[in-house]
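Checklist before submission:
- one chain only
- standard amino acids only
- sequence pasted in full

Submission:
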Amino acid sequence: MVLAVTFAFGAIGCYDDYLKLVVGNSRGLAARWKYFWQSVAGLAAAAALYYTAKTPTETTLYLPIARLGERLGAFLLRRLAGESPSELAKMFRPELVIRPTDQLGG
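Returned file contents:
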């Protein structure tokens, strides 16, 4: 999978260089098309990994500094979208969160 994504990004870059060097278009591939095709490649890889997973562990997101171990998918997205910023901040361990009132060096 890593090789396929690397190849896709390389092909996008190769086409951009082709436009610049061979065709003579000094601007190359427009940034919106680069981002579009890179997003297509990344989302295709993510979907392939998600739908070919055989165990729940393969689709669980673990954040080491947060109290979060959730299955990836629509449920997690709905949960994160529906939480207020203060509720999301409660998921993080307070001892690891840097506060603006913390003083350095004394």
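Reviewer check: Residues 58-96 form one domain.
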